[in-house]
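Thread: Newbie trying to understand structure tokens

Hi all, I'm a second-year student working on a class project, and my supervisor (Dr. K.) asked me to get a predicted structure for one chain before our next meeting. I've only ever worked with sequences, so writing a 3D structure as a token string is new to me. If someone could post the tokens and maybe explain what I'm looking at, I'd be very grateful. Here's the chain:
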Amino acid sequence: MRVLKTCLMLVLLTNMGCQLTVCGQEKQQPMNIIFIQADDLGYGDLGCYGQKIIKTPNLDMMASEGVRFTNYHASCSVCSPSRGSLLQGKHTGHSTIRTNQGKPPNPALRADDVTIAKVLQNSGYRTGMIGKWGLGDLGSTGSPEKQGFDYVFTFDPNSSADFYYPERMARIRNGETTTVTFPSATYVQDILTLEAKEFIAREKEHPFFVYLNYVIPHAPYEIPSNHPYEKEPLTEDEKNFAAMITYLDKDCGALMQELRDEGLFENTVVFFTSDNGPEGANVFQSAGPFNPDKVKRTLYQGGLEVPFVVHFPGKSGKVVNDLFAGYDFFETAAEIASVPQSALPAGLDGVSMLPSITGEGEQLEHQFLYWEFPVKNSKMLTKAVRIGPWKAIQVTSRRRNRIRELSFKLYNLDEDTAERTDIASLHPDIAQQMRRIMVQEHVDPVN
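---
Reply by user tm_fold:
Sure, no problem. This is what the structure looks like when written as tokens:
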């Protein structure tokens, strides 16, 4: 009886892609992991999150066939800190990159930083980074091939072409960088999707991790055709914006079909999200239920809370309301890959979301979520904490090592989703608890 129970348990674990042998039979390959990240996509931009105008049938289907999260937050409200925090598994009070990229030399991940790509690479995964990076210039310590990626296809920093029609891109394989040039009318979305599909087909005999970073729908709003919105009563930018998201949706559908065609659909977990909230208020209500005037570049919900859909084979139609953030992906991916805790770095701030995704096991809950973001050339620092429905936002200035609080606001998101009414004076105990966390969680970045 004990042997039978053991065999049954191993069968269950192996069906989840675990690296185990079932009663002497051939072991199943660990589950593949694909992380798709849009750029400036808002909580309200997808049909499965309430969008009424923009068509997103493939992502809506992915949500209905998978797991849709309603309380998932980006790690920051601008791209570079958000992406760095996600890959390091640390919130922005602890992660390496706290500010956005500008002109070279940009802030970069350090040589000794541990990313989830490094962890998966060390566990036998083939790792690919495709698209926008933003965590260090090519050749720096933060260059993606130095941060755990076997294959890299990204923007050439020396290219003079615009965002959506690059004249050339950089390919890094086996540590060698080559330049790939394109005709002037080549749309970047097509390039990135093709690269992702080719990586999947090329590495299908091995477990793989694809970190796919699209640039849609970041401004400027450019696309070869604004079909199917060309006759809609919208401005040209609005038609383009809607068409870009539908184009993104089409490519996500193509990637899911690629998994089916390659026989990988039942052994691949696909994540879809955005690096931060939308650029601003618009006719599509991209901020969803949140304050449309407090979006990207702020630590209000409109800048942080984003769509998050996970397609996990066999888990259909789930809606998860638990609180999570981008820095939870590290431990989630590690658990999917059956990486032992002893192989993970110290100081991670996340929790694995896998129990909420699968409905199996006990889900650890965050005591709080934390964010920070320097503004005005780092002369001021914005911090935010969320505990359940409570959300606090603080702005401080620092001069000659003296920190002065410029503002502090407290909201109850259950009663005030748009964060319009400060109730800090009504709840001094909660406000004080939030301030203590803000002091506790900030560590000055290492230069």
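A couple of things are worth pointing out once you decode it. The chain is about 25% helix and 20% strand. Residues 1-25 have pLDDT under 50 and may be disordered. Feel free to ask follow-ups in this thread.
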